[in-house]
Amino acid sequence: MSLCQSLMPRQFPYDASGCLGSFTAQGSIRLAGLQPPLRLAEEVGEGLGASEVLLGGVPEGETESGNIMMRHFGRVARCFLCNRTMKAIAQVANVYGGRRGESVAGGIAMRKSLIVLIVGLLASSALAQEPPKQPDPLGPGDHTRTVLMGEQKRTYLVHVPKKYDPKSPSPVVLALHGAAMNGPMMVWFSGLNKTSDEAGFVVAYPSGTGTGPFLTWNAGGFTGKMAEGKSDDVAFVGKLLDDLGTVVKVDEKRVYACGMSNGGMMSYRLAAELSDRIAAIAPVAGTIAIEDSKPKRPVPVIHFHGSKDNIVPFETAKGKASSFMKLKGVEDSIQTWVKLNACDQKPKTETISADGDEMTVTSTTYGGGKDGSEVVLVVIEGGGHTWPGQRPPVGFIGKSATNVSANDLMWNFFQRHELK
Q1: Predicted pLDDT of residue 70
Q2: If 0-12 CB within 10 Å is exposed, 13-18 middle and 19+ buried, where does residue 127 land?
Q3: Does the pLDDT of residue 401 top 70, yes or no?
Q4: CB distance 220 to 265 below 8 Å
Q5: In terms of Cα–Cα distance, which of 3, 11, 32 is closest to 90?
Q6: What is the pTM of this model?
Q7: What's the rounded Cα separation, in Å, for the pair 417 and 316?
Q8: What beta strand segments (E) does 140-231 contain?
C-alpha cells in the first residue's frame, strides 16, 4: 500500500494503478469540458472559495449530495499532499460524473467549487514536489565536483584524507595551479595529497578558465586582450566552498589558500577580497597582481620565492617580466601585507636550511600584527620558478630546494592561524 493509499479511508475505492483510480469516460468528458483558466473568474463568480473546499465546508442550503462531494474533496486534498495531483483530479471528475451511482446535485455552487479545486491543485502542484536530493557525503579518496557559474560549468578535485572523520570539522586547503595548468596537474606538481593524508586536512584543486588544459586565474594584472572577458574567480571560490560544505564537514575557521605562480597571485587576491572566509595564504612563486588590496581583516601570509626566478622575478627590475601582466615584486608584495596586517617593521631572519646544503633557505618573519597575524618570506637562494620540496618537472623553470618542504612549512604556518 502506498503512502497516499494509507491516508485514504478504507471505504474509498482505488485500484492497483494508484490511490485514486483512473478516469472514467464520463469523468474525462466532464473534465475536458471545463472552461480555460483565463475564464475561471467569470465561471466562479461569488461561488465557494478554495479554502472552504479544502477545509470541507458546505455552503448553507446545499444538499446531502453536496456533503458527499465535500468528503471526496477532503480525500482529494489529502492525496494531493502525496503529490498525486493528476489522479486526484481524475477522481474529482469521476465523482462529478456520478461514478458511484449517487445523484450529485448541489447546484451551480458545487460546479464552481470543483473548478476552484482543480485550478488550485494544478497551480500548486510545483509546491508539492519533493525537495532536491542532498548530495552524498564524500569519504576518503579523490573526487571530482562541478559548480555552475551562470551557464558555465567549473570543476574542482577534492582529496579527502585517509584519517577523515565525518563527525569532526576538517580544515581545508585550496591549492591553485599556475598558468597553463589545471587542477589535476596541480595534484602531482605540489604533492599536497601526501601532506593531506599525514596531517588530516582536506585539499581542493580547482581549475581556472581558458582553452583545454591550459588554464589561468583572474588574479589581476592582465593587460590588453588578456584582460578581456575574465571570469570572477573570487566568486567561483566562494561557490566552491559552499559546495564543498555540502559533502564534507568543513571547519570554516580553518580554510586556507596556496598557489603556484598565477595561483599564488590568486591567493593574494583571495586574501584581499575573500578575507572573511580565507584564514591565511601561502603563495609560491607568485606576487600581488591587483592594484589595491582591501581585506576586511588581517590575513597571515607565508610567501615562498626563489631568488633566481626569471618567470615571476623576485624584483620587478630583474629578469624578464611578462609583457601581458603587470605585477608587484616580492618585496613590494610583502611590505603591502606587513602594512595591511600592522606587523612590526623590523623582521627576524633565520636560516632554515642545514649547513652544507646545496641551496640556502632563509625565513624572514614580520610578527606582532593585528589579531596575531604575521607575514613570513621564505627565500630559496638560487631557486627558480619551483615548488620547494618538489623536483621540477622541466629544467627551464630553474632549480628547486629539496632540503625544505613548502608543504610542511605552510601547514605548520596554517595551524597557527585560524579565522578570527
Answers
A1: 45
A2: exposed
A3: yes
A4: yes
A5: 32
A6: 0.70
A7: 30
A8: 141-149, 152-160, 170-176, 202-206, 209-211, 214-216
